[in-house]
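Lecture 7, part B: from sequences to assemblies.

Below are the input chains for today's worked example.
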Amino acid sequence: MMNPIWEPEFEAADAAFVARADELSRSHFAGRAAEIDRLQEYPWDNVKRLTSAGLAGMFVPRQFGGGGSTLTAAAAVVERISIDCASTSAILCAYQLGAFPLLLAGTDAQKEQYLGALVGGEGVSFAISERGAGSDPAAMSASASPEGAEWLLRGEKYWIGNGGASRYYVAFVKTDPSAGARGISAFMVDKTLPGITIDEYVDKMGIRGTQTSNLKLDVRVRDSERVGNLNRAMPLALKTLTVGRVMVAAQSVGLALGAFQEATQRAMTRETFGSPIVDHQAVAFKLADIATEISAARLMLYEAAHTYDRGGDVAALAAMTKLFASEVSHRAADAAVQIWGGLGYCKPTKVERIYRDQRIMEIYEGTSEIQRLVISRAIRAAARP
Ligand SMILES: Cc1cc2nc3c(=O)[nH]c(=O)nc-3n(C[C@H](O)[C@H](O)[C@H](O)COP(=O)(O)OP(=O)(O)OC[C@H]3O[C@@H](n4cnc5c(N)ncnc54)[C@H](O)[C@@H]3O)c2cc1C
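Predicted structure of the full complex, as structure tokens:
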């Protein structure tokens, strides 16, 4: 029987990436997911497999050794892996987030060095947040001051996805503290440099196989390590986050699909009052609602990715897609736990893990409130005479 959830159709090149992800996820990631969650263990084996299958750097242009994929393919791969293991897909998303400032504004030399390293398995992480500056990154306190041909970077970044696991970091710091959002620049830093310390790892509710850390900076870097224009890194961060939001939407759809599959399977087999619980309309309607919402979120996801691939501006659409898909995944995870009853509340059921993994979708790369802020700003801008 056909799955009632809307299915995207892919061009041959995109479909080849998805088939590779499907194979890896089925044969390796699905079986490891519960263990890496329980042990809170960074799955280096999964990362190596993603790297050798050409998926870690699939979106890096071919001239720098990557797969030259579309965003559509990258989203589809993340969606597919998220069905089985949200930690592994979050690792892949963090690779993309780290790479995009370089893709968008890096010099050829920077792209060759850092994207080449990423394709070979040495990750690049995106470091803008601080303990005191998440939704409002312009409130950051890390700074860089000029010292001859070098910059002295000082401060502490926090919540860095793949922190410690990545070799390189795109660190956003203030280069003109009096200019607010117009005084921020981005620099590449290498974790092996003296003056870089990573010594705090966050103990998380979900996506526990990912590593999230601090990044202490007290380091000199050459001006050639600056990514993009001086004091203009905030628009670069926002463009990067636009792409990142499409990827979080993909993760959300994958998690919702995982929840739907588990809930359907349980509803078909668990019997109460002499019949499978799917025969109780209250249960069947929950499945109907989730299937409808996932289809809508998926349609938005692939439209956003296609529009980006065609060169369109997706800043508002990406915010809407992330907002909607992340909240759909919340409702899907909640319904799946409910359908699983007491077991759904207990480890090691997959729905219990999805329920925890899902929650970050509404927080990172801009909370749901920040997405609503982005959308309402777009509405105001369009309505202005
Ligand atoms: C697991 C994980 C991974 C992460 N990965 C990265 C990473 O790789 N790189 C990186 O730089 N950062 C990363 N982050 C940071 C993440 O992006 C921030 O946590 C997020 O943007 C929210 O910032 P905050 O935690 O400071 O919340 P706050 O900004 O303190 O917000 C608290 C609450 O207030 C609300 N709020 C704030 N301002 C407004 C407003 N103007 N209107 C309405 N409501 C508002 C928020 O929506 C939220 O509900 C990660 C975080 C986590 C937990």
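Note for the exam: The pocket of flavin-adenine dinucleotide is lined by residues 94, 97, 125-129, 134-135, 159-161, 204, 212, 360, 363-367, 369-370, 373 (CB under 6 Å). Keep this in mind when comparing with the next example.
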